[in-house]
Amino acid sequence: MDSRKIFGVDVGSYSRVGHFAWYELNSATDSPTPNNGYHDPVVLADHVIVALGEGRQIALGLEAPIWIPGSVVQQGLPPRMQERFPLELSRRWYAGAAATVGMMALSVLGDVLARLELIGLSVTVTDDFTLWEGTEDSILIYESFLVASSKPTSCGQIEGDEWDAFVTASLIWEYMGERTHLRSCPHPGQLQELQIGSDVHVPLWPTAVPNVFQKIVGSRAPITLAWL
Known about the structure:
The chain is an alpha/beta fold. 25% of the residues lie in helices and 19% in strands. The mean pLDDT is 91.
């Protein structure tokens, strides 16, 4: 059994059927299969709890903005109301849809972690990949950025939001050097890391982490992955 378990979340409203989905990958070679429970945020939290109980390291990917550019006004540069990377020119983090889904993502993360707090689990939550690799009982937070015109077309038994959640989970396996099901799909593309080094940034995800948990912010913007 691999020591890592990956959860990808396609963020959306809990109250609208088919607008929220998550997917878990126990290994990079897992193929997409349907599961009705993948639309229930409570089931997501339960699976995270089980995985932590098994001693697994957890990575949780959110298809939503989880960081914004930091202010560079003091450097004589334009204020931070700008895209985070070139690909975001048409889907800026502060535009209506992106800003809304970003707030939803914080709610999803907060709900999951609140359930861990309720049963007395102690975890470290971080966006620092190196620290996560070496820390027991830790959860890595990362972002996926999926563009409809370039993301892989589903070639399995799931589609729509479930497929986006599967892609989100697969991206971090690819980041770790593993080959995933994405490589067998139409428009194969390749992994792209979008955030820029250690540029000034403001992480949003820590606001959703209960104070009982240790939260560690890395020196660079959270991992932001795409398949292009």
